[in-house]
Amino acid sequence: MRHDSESVSTLIDKINAMSLEELKGQLPLAQNSLESIELDLEQLMALRDVNVIRVAAMRSRLTGLQQA
Predict the structure, then answer these.
(1) Which terminus of the chain is more exposed, N or C, with fewer CB under 10 A?
(2) SS (HEC) of the chain
(3) How much is the pLDDT for 3?
(4) Over the stretch 32-42, which tens digit does the pLDDT of each residue have?
């Protein structure tokens, strides 16, 4: 999800206005969100790796065809 700078600023202001107890209460949600982001990142990195391998294979095939 993308945020414009105004909404990010608003979120930061809300966080800054929270008491320590409120922040502690939000910690489990923040940790779950971070874990979800990490899983998504791992999936994206795996897709990137697969695509790098595919591009290398296509280049190799193209080179072979050009030399034929």
Answers:
(1) N
(2) CCCCHHHHHHHHHHHHHCCHHHHHHHHHHHHHHHHHHHHHHHHHHHHHHHHHHHHHHHHHHHHHHHHC
(3) 61
(4) 999 999 999 99
Instruction: Quote the CA–CA distance of 8 and 20 in Å, as a whole number.
Output: 20
Produce one character per residue of 4-20: b if its CB has 16 or more CB atoms within 10 Å, e if not.
Answer: eeeeeeeeeeeeeeeee
Query: Phi/psi of residue 38, each to 5°?
Result: -65, -40
The two most distant CA atoms of the chain are separated, in Å, by 71
Distance CA 55, CA 63 (A): 12
**Can you give the residue range of the structural domain that contains 37?**
5-67
- Contact between 26 and 18 under an 8 Å Cβ cutoff? The reply is yes
Count of domains observed in the chain:
1
